[in-house]
Here is the input.
Amino acid sequence: MLLLEPNNKVLAETISAQLKPLELIENDDGKQEKAKREPIDVRLCDFDDVLYHVLVSHDARDTLMLSVYLPCWNEIKDRGGLDALKEHYGDFISSSKEDGYDVTLTVNLDNPPMKPEDLVLKLSSIKSVLVGGIFDRYFSGLLSAKPVTENFTFKLKGDTQIFMVPRAERVIIVYSLQFNDKVDAAIAKVFMQEFVDARRRITSAPPCTFSVNPPLELKEFGIVEPIPGNLGFVSFAVEKRNVEGVRKEKVVFVLQSFRNYIQYHIKCSKAFFHSRMRARVVSLIKVLNRAKQDVPAGQKEMKTIQGKTFKRDV
Amino acid sequence: MSNTLSGYLKAIRSSLEAAFCVRNFASQVVERHNKPEVEARMSKELLLQPIVIAREKGEKCLIEGSINSVRISIAIKKSDEMEEVLVDRFSRFLAQRAEDFVILRRAPVKGYDVSFLITNFHSEEMKKDKLIDFIIHFMEEVNSEISALKLAVNSRARVVSGTFLRQFV
Here is the structure.
């Protein structure tokens, strides 16, 4: 699996388990009736420190409540977050917001408004839709010739800051990446350099640059010196033709999960190192064992249970 | 490139064959103890002159001999940051499995990446020329392993960036 999936698998499984049709069981009077749904209370987390809370309460067993907490919500909600929420989940928005969470949705489990599989996919992609809302705002502006001219930055996570700089006919998106582990940083550097090189092979891809010094666009935010502890800045200049039609959804998803994508592949590389090193160690030990002396053909040294050693003719 | 490697390995092999004359020798300093003298370093007359065979600044081999043990330390070439990280990981991986390897030293000598300690007891169990073969084979294997891992990271990076950018096309 090269690309990450837009929805959260654990959340999808939790919700689809609740949407399964209830089976008929026999009750105490000997009549068939529908089984009662079990109440559940599940707390999950997702990439980028996002938290979910899925609740089917004891009293209201036909409604599922889904609450989401995003650390960056306060920064993005006015700039496309709320719009994305209303557009995709307008019917589900709950009137009462749960404490400690940013968004709460309620779903009627007995009469779902669409097919269960579609509903599950829609609900479990909530994080990518909400964070994608801010990217969507800039890209829709590009496409509709009414570009958004505001420069904006927000911290998606503790170690990733995203800058959006609109220019004529394109939007430049800069990621400032920080890796705490030396091995992660070395592998990420190789990946970033390949991104720049890959642009040469795939000509219609957006121009991509990577450097330790901040790119000139960040002067608007007042960043001219490289930030200590950072791996560097990687920037993509997204043009109108990159977000036309069906590409917009793919582009939005892939950009908002960029950091997770890189992290996933770094982990895969490390796991690959380990399995190769293990295989190599096994082969080296085999070679070493070839150096061991052969047992002399005449006699074999053996031990009894009590520890006495004696030689037996083979 | 492989010309200098084979010369380097030949020099190491002949030096090892010369240094590898070990016999059992109980400790002179402590009664009833039998220590590898190259590690204990308590009596100067029991130690041979250490020699360093260097292919270049970052790739060298230190051979220290003594009357009952030989210590071989290898520094592996690290030409960039990625190789440094890989060599560090690999040598730590090996050192953790030193028990399985018998002749590997748990901590490398300062300034080197991997160290072997071969005592007279090992040479009684294993054939001397096969041991030397193993050390030479080990050095070749480690070099090829590091380059293979580096290549794997580069090809993965190419695929990762290609898939990402193709989403924009």
User: Anything to note?
Assistant: Chain A has a mean pLDDT of 84. The two ends of chain A are 56 Å apart (CA to CA).
